[in-house]
Task: inverse folding
C-alpha cells in the first residue's frame, strides 16, 4: 500500500492510506518505509485505525532504521559556486551564482536565488583546501524554498585529481 505521512512525532506517526484501503487488524505489527530527501527510513511499530477513515497510526514506533540512499556520502560544506551553461549558442555565457549546501564524490546540492535553466551546467567552486573544482553536472532536481532554489547536481566525468581532492575532503570531514 502507499500512503501519505500526515503527522509525525517521536511516539507515533499518522499515515493516510485513503478511504479504499483495508483497515489493519487491531494492534497489527507493521513496517512503513518513508522516503525523505536525505535517506529512506524504515519504521517498525503497531498499526491501529484512526479517524478519518483510511488513516492509520503507527503507535508505538518500536524501531527506526535509516538507510542511506546515495552511494557516496555528502558533507555539509558551504562555499561559493558558479553554474555556467556552456552549451548556449549565443556569444554570452549564462551563469548563476550560489552556494553549496553539501558536497560529495557523486555530486553536490546548491542554493541559488534564480531558477536553473533546463540545461546541464558546468560547476566551478573552490574547496576549503584551496583546490578548484570545475566539472560538468547533471541536474537531478530543483525545489523552490523560502531561501531560493535548491538544486541537486550529479558530477559527470570529473578529472581524477578532482575526485581525489573530493575524497580527501569527505574523509577528513567524516573522520
Result:
Amino acid at each position: 500500500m502507499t500512503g501519505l505521512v500526515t503527522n509525525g512525532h517521536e511516539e507515533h506517526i499518522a499515515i493516510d492510506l485513503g478511504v479504499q484501503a483495508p483497515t489493519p487488524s487491531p494492534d497489527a505489527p507493521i513496517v512503513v518505509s518513508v522516503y525523505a530527501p536525505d535517506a529512506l527510513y524504515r519504521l517498525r511499530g503497531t498499526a491501529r485505525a484512526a479517524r478519518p477513515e483510511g488513516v492509520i497510526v503507527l503507535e508505538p514506533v518500536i524501531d527506526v532504521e535509516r538507510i542511506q540512499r546515495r552511494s557516496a556520502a555528502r558533507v555539509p560544506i558551504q562555499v561559493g559556486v558558479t553554474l555556467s551553461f556552456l552549451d548556449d549558442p549565443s556569444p554570452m555565457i549564462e551563469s548563476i551564482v550560489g552556494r553549496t549546501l553539501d558536497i560529495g564524490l557523486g555530486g553536490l546540492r546548491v542554493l541559488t536565488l534564480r531558477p536553473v535553466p533546463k540545461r546541464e551546467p558546468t560547476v566551478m567552486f573552490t574547496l576549503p583546501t584551496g583546490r578548484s573544482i570545475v566539472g560538468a553536472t547533471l541536474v537531478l532536481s530543483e525545489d523552490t524554498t523560502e531561501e531560493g532554489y535548491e538544486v541537486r547536481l550529479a558530477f559527470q566525468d570529473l578529472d581524477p585529481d578532482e575526485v581525489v581532492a573530493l575524497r580527501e575532503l569527505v574523509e577528513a570531514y567524516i573522520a
